[in-house]
Design brief:
685 residues, 7-stranded mixed beta sheet, 13 strands, globular
């Protein structure tokens, strides 16, 4: 099915396809089925040229005459017995529209017909190669029906009778077998040949009907090579049966061959004329006028006679149009020839003696088609004019005609011609690669790697409740605004030693007094304690957490941890000193650090003690609440300590314990009288 759809779309000429389309539309409007039958299916299957089309419809085809004439067909003959119409469509298409019939022969040459289906119609035909049909209906388009296995005979190139009595019932089939054998080069199947010889010997041809005689006579002129067919019929003796006194010797053989050459040239150019009318004067060239007139009257289709007689007039009209000034340009002459009647074009190209006409036809056949080879497909691809572009076919035709007329001699002219048809360039593809992050400066990296972490000191419970949050927030704000370190004003080693001594004395008044006598230097040492190298057993030791009980003192614990951190700082390696940066003014409500002048917003920065080693900055830590009830005071003081000048930074230990800053002098003196509690051991993991 798919194979025959392909054959219908590619083997038929555009004019034949259009004619079949009109037939299908008429059949659909009358709600009847239509099939392609006979020689057209045989030629599609065998691969030979398709000369004419045979179509059958269910019902009487004679009732479709008006619709077919409105569709563009011209009726040139009818057959009342078989209810058939013979038409010609534009483009030189010859078409027979018949009815699906069942035929019987009570007597030789006397058919009796009645309406039937498509299968019965195929079984009443002459040869199996002609007893095939292709559906042209919606839903079954391209479906092949071959009830008698005609495809096998086509492959064997044989003619086989459908009925064993075929030659007796219709003697015209013997003439048809000779004509098809001469055209296709096929032989008759063995039994068919035997019946043919029997019919020829017994004179079956005497029962030939007048209509069949005139039909077979006319078919000689519709052959591609009528001289060969005529000679074949003469050899079998059928020429005398059809028209006595007319044979191949009466024809102008040289002109017949030249006409066939012109037909071949036009077919190559895509023009498919029906040469039968042009063949007639050449095949009857040596007949007298009376004999010629009698021959015309013998033809079965009167329309064919009209075509013969009007051909000369149509040729002259085309010659006048072809040589006019309006068709002086090659492109105009090209369009005129393709729009004209193919039979008139053939007659003009063959019969005209005008040098101008012959020169134009010479250019038409040889020079003008070369313009298609000059179409700049590479330039069109460069200008994004691809075949999927809308109107690409029309553009190719315009370009072809412009090249033919010599308007595009240079590449610049061709580019200018194609520029209006070039689509805009597509947008560039989006770049999915992310831009690399901006590299930070070394100073920014050092600041980000070593931020200062202020330590907030809380004197007592009330201080935590009242002033510690503001102090913490102020310290955090100052750390985010000015992350540079502030130089310490006292040596952290001495403060750590004092705290360590207080822790060893068990929190005695003398130790507390000694620790509190550190004065401003101990107060300014609020920076993060330096990280000490953890011992083998202290790597996994967690930092001590402040007791949740409000009355519980953790002063001793903080003092002991600060002392241990101070010892570790003395043993750390020297690190490159960071450049000192002046600290910004403290937040509103926070007291100035110890050592600052009264009324001054900037803290006083003192040089670090000699030999002191600074610890790396740590995260801010909140010191635990002081033990005992202490009257509410101002928010705790916070100081920021940076690495000492000339000191070497040490990598921070793993989770060092936060340092406990010493209390104020007044608080330390008050707590000195009370016995100090032993330091609370930090819990292990």
């Amino acid at each position: 099915m798919a194979d025959y759809i392909y054959l219908l779309e590619n083997r038929l000429s555009p004019a034949q396809q259009e004619a079949l389309k009109q037939i299908r539309e008429v059949a659909r409007s009358r709600a009847t089925t239509v099939f392609l039958v006979g020689g057209a299916v045989r030629d599609l299957t065998s691969g030979t040229s398709i000369r004419d089309l045979d179509v059958v419809v269910q019902g009487s085809a004679l009732k479709l005459r008006k619709e077919l004439e409105k569709a563009g067909g011209r009726v040139v003959g009818t057959n009342e017995t078989f209810q058939s119409l013979y038409l010609t469509f534009p483009g030189g298409v010859r078409l027979e529209v018949g009815s699906t019939l069942a035929v019987t022969f009570p007597k030789p040459g006397k058919p009796v017909v009645k309406p039937a289906g498509i299968l019965d119609d195929l079984r009443r035909r002459d040869f199996t190669a002609n007893a095939m049909a292709i559906s042209l209906n919606e839903g079954s388009y391209g479906l092949l029906m071959d009830p008698l296995n005609g495809v096998a005979d086509i492959e064997n190139r044989e003619l086989r009778l459908v009925s064993n009595y075929g030659f007796i019932e219709d003697p015209a089939r013997m003439i048809r077998a000779t004509r098809l054998g001469g055209r296709l080069g096929w032989n008759m199947e063995e039994r068919t040949q035997q019946r043919y010889d029997t019919g020829k010997a017994e004179g079956y041809i005497s029962a030939l009907s007048p209509w069949e005689r005139s039909y077979e006579l006319e078919e000689i002129f519709h052959e591609e090579d009528p001289l060969r067919i005529q000679r074949k019929l003469e050899a079998e003796g059928w020429s005398e049966v059809l028209f006595p006194g007319w044979n191949a010797a009466k024809a102008n053989e040289a002109e017949v061959e030249r006409l066939r050459d012109v037909v071949g040239q036009l077919n190559t150019m895509g023009i498919f004329p029906d040469p039968s009318a042009a063949f007639f004067p050449l095949l009857a060239a040596k007949l007298g006028a009376k004999e010629t007139a009698t021959l015309k009257e013998t033809f079965a289709r009167p329309g064919f006679v009209e075509e013969i007689e009007s051909l000369e007039t149509r040729t002259k009209a085309l010659a006048t149009q072809f040589t006019s000034k309006g068709n002086a340009a090659p492109s105009d002459a090209w369009k005129m020839l393709y729009g004209a009647e193919p039979e008139a074009v053939l007659s003009l190209a063959f019969t005209s003696k005008s040098p101008a006409v012959q020169q134009k036809f010479k250019l038409f056949f040889n020079e003008w088609p070369q313009a298609r080879n000059k179409v700049p497909y590479a330039l069109m691809q460069e200008m994004r004019i691809s075949p999927d572009l809308q109107g690409h076919g029309e553009l190719l035709e315009k370009l072809f005609f412009a090249i033919m007329d010599g308007l595009l001699e240079t590449p610049e002219q061709t580019r200018a011609f194609l520029e209006p048809y070039s689509p805009p360039a597509p947008p560039p593809p989006p770049n999915l690669r992310r831009r690399p992050a901006k590299r930070e400066t070394k100073a920014a990296k050092s600041k980000a790697a070593k931020p200062t972490a202020p330590v907030v000191r809380v004197d007592d419970q009330d201080g935590i409740a009242a002033g510690a949050p503001s102090a913490i927030e102020g310290a955090a704000d100052r750390a985010s605004v000015a992350p540079a370190a502030v130089t310490a004003t006292a040596a952290p080693a001495k403060v750590a030693a004092a705290k360590n001594g207080a822790a060893r004395n068990g929190g005695s008044p003398a130790a507390a007094k000694k620790g509190s006598s550190a004065g401003p230097a101990a107060t300014v040492a609020a920076a993060v304690p330096p990280a000490a190298k953890p011992s083998a057993g202290a790597k996994d030791r967690p930092a001590a957490k402040p007791s949740p009980a409000p009355g519980k003192s953790v002063q001793a614990t903080g003092t002991a941890k600060a002392a241990s951190a101070g010892k570790a700082a003395n043993t750390s390696k020297a690190a490159k000193p960071a450049p000192p940066v002046k600290a910004k003014a403290p937040a509103a409500g926070a007291k100035a650090p110890v050592g600052a002048k009264t009324g001054s917003r900037k803290p006083v920065v003192k040089a670090p003690a000699k030999g002191a080693k600074a610890a790396p900055p740590k995260r801010p830590a909140v010191v635990a609440k002081a033990a005992g009830k202490v009257p509410a005071k101002a928010p705790a003081k916070a100081a920021v300590k940076g690495p000492a000048k000339g000191a070497q930074a040490k990598a921070p230990a793993k989770r060092p314990a936060p340092a406990k800053a010493p209390a104020k002098k007044a608080v330390a003196a008050k707590k000195a009288a009370a016995p100090a509690r032993p330091a609370k051991k930090s819990a292990r993991r």
